[in-house]
Amino acid sequence: MQQYKYLYTKRTAAKIRSFYRNVAKKYRHTYSYEDMDRNVHDAFFAIYGIERTLRRRKPTISRWAGYHMANAGKWYYAYTIEGDMIKVIDACHAQNMHE
User: Fold this and answer.
1) What is the DSSP annotation of the chain?
2) Whole-number Å distance between alpha carbons of 7 and 47
3) pTM of this prediction?
4) pLDDT tens, 56-99?
């Protein structure tokens, strides 16, 4: 099995953080900052499963045409492979997977 190095863009990080920040704002009485931190951590940690345990898929949304797509739970990741580097270009929560 090939060993990959992983890199994610600022866009990817911003999408993950802003999604859970919005959840925390909307459900402030039941969703704690600890929940938010855990969910953000899990979403970033899932990136390291790309091409290891997460299968490569064909993108289902047109803005990801030309990229590979992987799914981990409720998160979808668009990425490229350049040699031994996997670069995650974008992330999208399942609730937002539409054109």
Assistant:
1) ----EEEE-HHHHHHHHHHHHHHHHHTTTT--HHHHHHHHHHHHHHGGGBTTTBPPB--SSGGGTTSEEEEETTEEEEEEEETTEEEEEEEEEGGG---
2) 9
3) 0.93
4) 999 999 999 999 999 999 999 999 999 999 999 999 999 999 87
